[in-house]
Amino acid sequence: MRILVIGGGAREHALLYALSRDPQVTALHVAPGNAGMSNLATLHNIDVKDSAGLVALAKTENIDLVVIGPEIPLVAGVADALRDAGFAVFGPSAAAAQIEGSKEFAKDIMKAAGVVTADAVVLRADQDGLDDALEAALDDMGPTWVVKDDGLAGGKGVVVTDERDAAEAHAREVLAAGNPVLFERFLDGPEVSLFCLVDGETVVPLIPAQDHKRVGDGDTGPNTGGMGAYCPLPWLPEDGVDRIVREVCEPVVKEMAARGVPYSGLLYAGLAWGKNGPAVIEFNCRFGDPETQPVLSLLETPLAGVLNAVATGTLAEQPELKWRDGYALTVVLAAENYPASPVVGGEITGAQPGREADGVLHAGTAEKDGKIVSAGGRVLNVIGTGDTLAAARDNAYRVLDTIELAGSHYRTDIALPAVEGKISIPTQ
Ligand code: AMP
Ligand code: GLY
């Protein structure tokens, strides 16, 4: 099977590494890729939204399956263009990608499907009586305010705060930029990321993971794209995954099919596990980053066959997925001053291409004069696996110590609350 992966982050590096271990795979291409991928795939410098360029590449390289990583090309309709040209594609249509692209669309689907999620109010800059509506939303939603930019912001347009002034300031900023602002009821409880393979009808869950969204140890500082993740979740009730599939993912997939917007690809449910079980925080229309990196490191079933079954609507015929015992986690190495305005261009040592077996995956990197340099906010990921979460942590941090980038930072507490038994489900 000849495969083209679209994207250039650590998630795509993890996908390529898993695909490279599938004996069915005969060629791997990536657009645009990054400096860490050259041992695994042929890199093509084509933008992820350039539908015409990607269709032409798929034709030239005789591609059998296209795997789309990020949400931006999905929301922009790149999967539609490739399907129209006759290619098998892993990733939803633009219409179905609205489950991530529009929080209002996602809320509407959930309401119709009877899925538990936070109450929300949407405000628009041009609505009548905006100031009164804003005051009313602030009065109603505290004491913890959740204020979201209803544009595609990759988790970065969200402010969760106990300060009313900060909530109001963010809402006004979003409105001033011309976007709708969404106020949501705060959902209490530890977070779960559950990824499901969906082929329009059949839903197959992967193992559950947890992301660490804040930049600093102890969940301090601003939200980021994700600073680390681990899987599976030792604190999740035994029927946790089944409940999420039954109560959340299957009803959504049914509702989308009934509306004539069938979902095919990876459905990412981001949830809070509260006193009554799962409540949806958000959906994403793609594999999560960084959760995908540890999740795929524990998958034993060859990946290409699985993704192809999704793309061709034959998931129900696939054998059950096989997983390695034990745990995995990934720690993100971020550039100086990430997430505000990351410093790029610094030389990285210890991260030459080909260290995937040690768990080293590249995100924002580039090659310059034969050296690997930083080229984005999240620069590298290091994965550790082990029989216990504590062992997986030790393995990841030991490898991370062998890598250097001036000014870079990472969280030292990825999976630590779970190791210490400090994650608890609210009882009231
Ligand atoms: P989102 O972009 O919607 O995923 O939000 C980013 C992060 O903000 C989530 O991963 C949560 O940590 C937090 N968050 C968003 N919405 C809520 C909510 N309603 N209740 C509690 N936390 C939330
Ligand atoms: N892990 C957060 C995201 O992929 O959006």
pLDDT < 50 runs, ≥5 residues: none
Tell me the radius of gyration.
21 Å
Largest sheet: 5 strands, parallel
Strand content: 25-35%
Bound compounds: adenosine monophosphate, glycine
Mean pLDDT: 96
**How many DSSP helices?**
13
The SS-based structural class is alpha+beta
Rough outline: globular
**Alpha-carbon distance between the two ends:** 52 Å
Helix content: 25-40%
Number of strands: 24
* Order of strands in the sheet with most strands: 3-2-1-4-5
Task: Characterize the structure shown.
The protein is globular and about 60 Å long. 30% of the residues lie in helices and 27% in strands. A hairpin with an 8-residue loop joins strand 7 (145-149) and strand 8. Helix 2 (51-60) crosses helix 4, helix 5 (94-101) packs across helix 6 and helix 6 (103-113) packs across helix 9 (240-258). The relative contact order is 0.14. The chain has 428 residues and is α+β, with helices and mostly antiparallel strands. The strands form seven sheets. A five-stranded parallel β-sheet has the order 3-2-1-4-5, sandwiched between helices. The longest helix has 19 residues, at 240-258. It binds adenosine monophosphate (AMP) and glycine. Glycine (GLY) binds next to loops.
Chart the SSEs and their pairings.
Elements: E1 2-7, H1 10-20, E2 27-32, E3 42-43, H2 51-60, E4 65-68, H3 71-75, H4 78-84, E5 88-90, H5 94-101, H6 103-113, E6 120-123, H7 130-141, E7 145-149, E8 158-161, H8 164-176, E9 181-184, E10 191-199, E11 203-205, E12 210-211, E13 214-216, E14 220-223, E15 228-231, H9 240-258, E16 264-274, E17 277-284, H10 292-297, H11 303-311, E18 327-334, E19 348-349, E20 360-362, E21 365-368, E22 371-374, E23 378-386, H12 389-400, E24 404-405, H13 416-419
The protein binds adenosine monophosphate and glycine.
